[in-house]
Amino acid sequence: MLTSRSGGAAKLHYMANNFRMLSPGDHVLCAVTGEAIPLDDLRYWSVERQEPYATAEISVRAAEKMG
Length: 67
Hints:
The protein is of the alpha+beta class. Helices cover 16% and strands 31% of the residues. It has one helix and six strands, in the order ββββββα. It is globular.
């Protein structure tokens, strides 16, 4: 994946199967919990809301809330 070792939060554009780095960093913050997610571990996000999630369970809960 596209990672940077700058130590800060990255700004990403989320796409269906990948993401594009807009601002360098080595992690993003979960949109629900605020937990830091290393880019190498980022697996769950919403393309529509452009939000990252720490776990599959959190992503499902977020989708249900928006539902």
